[in-house]
Design a protein that fits this description.
Distance between the termini: 40 Å
Number of strands: 56
Oligomer: single chain
Largest sheet: 42 strands, parallel
Helix content: under 10%
Shape: elongated
Strand content: over 45%
């Protein structure tokens, strides 16, 4: 089989002129495309016109011109097309179009990728050029100088940038806490004043009180109510009526104005007409009673304090503003119709503060919920829009159940049990803050949750709990302060029916490890973890799921980087910098695999004193680690006894396969093999006393090395 190389966008010397082979390309010619920009090869075959294949679908070539497009490292696979093309083909996630090369063909051809392109990196008898050192091609190729960093290593490790929600505050810190819902620490507000996410000062909700006992700007024919009013009054300023008489006497279109004072009723105050009810101001007008709004009415209530519940019947519409509702153990606002709350304070001893039933709808703006013991806002098969919610106490902030649709923004839950809970519902949220709470979101039973812009501080439970649901989380900052928090941290629980994508994530957790327990599909794209525990793992993954993937991820200031207990882990463009001075007894390591499968591409692991990679299976298990275009470095420690060991270690039935790699272990060993299942291809060992140390006499050494170069004192030591 003849092979032809097409190169572009790989080396500083630019695309090369590829001579046309003679005779022309045929079905036995294999064409290698070296790209995209990281130098990973993608194999294409020229096939007969009658060839049948289904992945990926491409058009039959009708012209003599073929265009092959390069795309920059999308999360799933490298995009390609046969052209000419002007945009990525359908179904290809390829945000960064880099360009292409052209080749003239004679006759119609179809093209398809090799199914094993990751494992095939040769062009005839010559190794594909790849960058094994800064600005240098270690293996002789067609170019003398490479422009990429070593192995296409990740760019600046601080490149993750979380976009702050509009109105939030951005700090200048390098890692985490970059976005904050409050300017500095959350202000401590005085009685009757509140601060919402995106604000820096406390405000009073509702209008200010005046010297006039009644609110200003009311119509002259309004019904005036005062503490001294009687049933025999005519409702004028001079002869006001009591509150019950005003409600009973009013007809649709009337306005009731209430002077400052205390009003009580042993029976609910029922409104069956479309009215406007204005109190002087929330702090002066106190009504102790339940208010029931009947069907087919439109009621506007403002400027009062209600000790009791507001109940809104089906087909009724209520606007409540500049008011407070303190309902004891009942719901503060119970809605079967439509309600709009603006500048309202709600307080309940137990139960649900705002309960929105099937078929109802609600709009909440700048609503503070205090001391509810169970739920802040609950929507059941209802539509709810919330802009500016503040909850305090151990509550679930917003609950959406039974096909509810909730839009939530600019909200803060302080001490929340869980900020958002969705059961068979759709929730879209933005600019969400959780402080001293249990978690950000729990989603179950077919829910779809999308959150853009969120922040958690001192979360003590499960940050993301997803069971039979779909989650998309973008721009999230999770921060642990300097003082330890109680309880174990479980960052994600994901069952086999679920799919979650987390994009642009920053985590700083100096006192607790982050646990990912996933049985479904979980993808992290653009992630930074910093300041992990000084004697534990930054990230622990278990669950045996379909996939946990990291694309463009960085772990900094770690004692141990990633521990895979079980499952499938995919790493693409990942840096682990375990550079804390280690406690030797704790065995720090960059990547520890106890069971499962790891597919790693463009991974850089830099540790001090201990292994960059360790494959150490639990008894009876067979973990497999495959690394392509990656670099491992084990730097010497200031603590001499910590320098024992190797940059990579494989034990028992574990397997480590590396291609296009560089391993550096000054004063140490590059790879120590205590098992019998590993392979190395097209790589280099640098700056080490020993390149590969085989400890197991049963190891099939003949199957270990393929085109591996040693710059170590001793290339290989056998048992």
């Amino acid at each position: 089989m003849r092979r032809v190389a097409l190169l572009g966008l790989l080396c500083a010397c630019g695309p090369l002129e590829v001579p046309r082979p003679e005779p022309p390309l045929d079905a036995e010619t294999e064409v290698w495309i070296l790209g995209p920009s990281n130098g990973a090869p993608v194999a294409f075959h020229v096939a007969d016109a009658e060839s049948d294949f289904t992945f990926p679908p491409v058009p039959r070539l009708d012209a003599d011109r073929v265009e092959i497009a390069y795309f920059a490292n999308p999360p799933s696979a490298y995009g390609w097309s046969v052209g000419p093309i002007t945009s990525p083909p359908d179904g290809v996630v390829a945000p960064d179009f880099l360009g292409g090369v052209h080749y003239e063909l004679e006759g119609a051809r179809e093209w398809k990728p090799s199914a094993q392109w990751r494992d095939r990196i040769r062009i005839g008898d010559r190794a594909a050029p790849w960058c094994a050192g800064a600005g240098e091609c270690r293996v002789e190729g067609l170019c003398e100088e490479c422009v990429n960093a070593p192995f296409g290593a990740p760019a600046d490790v601080t490149s993750v940038h979380v976009e702050c929600p509009v109105g939030w505050f951005e700090t200048a810190e390098r890692i985490a806490r970059r976005c904050r819902p409050f300017e500095g620490e959350m202000p401590v507000c005085g009685p009757g004043t509140y601060v919402f996410a995106g604000e820096s000062t406390c405000h009073r909700l509702g209008r200010a009180c005046t010297s006039d006992p009644w609110p200003s700007g009311v119509p002259s024919d309004a019904l005036f109510v005062s503490e001294a009013g009687t049933a025999s009054g005519d409702g004028s300023r001079a002869r006001p009526v009591d509150l019950g008489t005003a409600i009973a006497r009013a007809t649709s279109g009337d306005t009731i104005v209430i002077a400052g004072g205390a009003y009580e009723s042993n029976t609910p105050l029922r409104i069956d007409a479309s009215l406007v009810v204005h109190g002087e101001c929330e702090s002066e007008v106190r009504i102790t009673a339940d208010i029931e709004v009947g069907r087919e009415t439109q009621v506007d209530i403002s400027g009062l304090s209600l000790v009791g519940s507001l109940r809104v019947a089906a087909s009724a519409t209520v606007a409540l503003s500049g008011a407070s509702v303190r309902a004891g153990d009942a719901s503060a606002v119970d809605v079967t119709g439509r309600v709009a709350l603006n500048g309202v304070v709600l307080e309940t001893g137990a139960g649900v503060a705002v309960d929105i039933h099937a078929g109802a709808s609600a709009n909440l703006e700048r609503v503070a919920i205090l001391s509810a013991d169970e739920v802040g806002v609950r929507a059941a098969n209802a539509e709810v829009v919330i802009d500016g919610l503040l909850t305090t106490g151990f509550v679930t902030g917003v609950v959406a159940i039974d096909r509810a649709v909730v839009r939530l923004s600019n909200s803060a839950m302080l001490g929340a049990r869980t900020a958002i809970y969705a059961f068979g519902s759709e929730v879209t949220a933005s600019a969400i803050a959780v402080q001293d709470g249990f978690g950000l979101v729990a989603a179950t039973e077919g829910s779809e949750v999308t959150i853009a812009g969120s922040w958690t501080e001192r979360s003590s439970g499960v940050e993301l709990e997803i069971f039979g649901a779909t989650l998309s989380l973008v721009d999230h900052v999770a921060f642990e302060p300097a003082s330890p928090a109680s309880g174990a941290s479980a960052f994600v629980h994901l069952d086999a029916r679920s799919h979650a994508t987390v994009s642009r994530l920053e985590v700083s957790s100096p006192h607790r490890s982050l646990h990912i327990d996933s049985e479904g599909v979980l993808d992290f794209i653009d992630m930074t973890i910093a300041r992990s525990p000084s004697d534990a793992e930054a990230l622990i993954i278990s669950g045996g799921g379909e996939r946990v993937g990291f694309v463009r991820a960085t772990i900094l200031e770690a004692h141990r980087g990633i521990v895979l207990r079980t499952g499938t882990l995919e790493l693409d463009d990942v840096t682990i910098d375990a550079d804390l001075e280690p406690d030797c007894s704790a065995e720090p390591v960059g990547l520890l695999v106890e069971d499962g499968n790891v597919e790693a591409h463009q991974v850089v692991i830099d540790v001090v004193g201990r292994p960059a990679v360790q494959v150490r299976p639990v008894i009876g298990l067979t973990p497999v680690v495959s690394m392509v275009a990656s670099r491992l470095e084990r730097r010497p420690s200031n603590t001499t006894e910590c320098n024992d060991g190797a940059a990579a270690e494989v034990f028992g039935e574990g397997r480590l396969s590396m291609s296009q790699f560089e391993v550096s272990a000054p004063r140490g060993t590059g790879l120590a093999l205590y098992g019998t299942r590993s392979s190395l291809r097209d790589g280099v060992f640098t700056e080490g006393a020993i390149g590969v140390h085989v400890h197991d006499p049963e190891f099939p050494v003949a199957d270990l090395l393929d085109k591996v170069r040693f710059d170590t004192d001793v290339p290989m030591r056998l048992p």
